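Bit of a strange request maybe. I'm writing a small parser for structure token strings and I need a real example to test against, not something I typed by hand. Could someone generate the tokens for this chain?
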Amino acid sequence: MQPQTLEKRVERLEMGMLNLQEIPERVTALEVQIVQLRDEMRGEFSAVRVEMKGCESRLRHEIHACEERLRAEMREGEGHLRAEMREGEERLRAEMREGEGRLRAEMRALNQDTRTHMLVLHEEVIDRLKLLGEANGRRQAPRKRSK
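Reply from user aminoacidic:
Good idea to test on real output. This should exercise your parser:
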């Protein structure tokens, strides 16, 4: 590198000093921009908070409304279910009574059949005993009684 003249060196220093003199103005301008940015951000954050609170309130209201609708639907469904269960229970009881009546009638008929069959068998036994008695009486001659 070649040695520079004093004049050149001073000129360079002056230029550097001029640039350095602009720094406070630029810093001040930057400071103003930062303050403005802070104010804008603060305002925006506040607006976002307010909007979020509004959304939260609407969401809570919607959730509450949905819960109420669900409860109403569940109560209505429960009522329908209870009614269906009562109807089913009544049909089942009617079917049981009808079945009980048919069973009783069938048992009576079977009981009557059994009685009839027993009477027939009884009469057959009596007839056989008579026949056996008569057959025994023919085989044995009457004995004479001794005096």
